[in-house]
Amino acid sequence: xxxxxxxxxxxxxxxxxxxTKKRAKKTSKPASSGMKQAVNSEKADSPPFISxxxxxxxIAETAYYLAERRGFISGYELEDWFAAELAIDxxxxx
Length: 94
Hints:
This protein is mainly alpha-helical.
């Protein structure tokens, strides 16, 4: 039963991560011209660089949505966090 719960959590985290990614795109600042050159010189299929603080914020928001769906029942904080990490990193193809 734990595996079924984890699969459900990962799917929920992926949905929450998608919402978080959309919000991050809306609030991100345009890169400077030097940064644009560095990004353009990388492979086209590599994910764009995000700072560790932005990644942390995206994970925290995704974990929050997972907890919210469960009604904020305590005891699942780490599971929510790890599922959110997996979803954010999977979405970025890391």
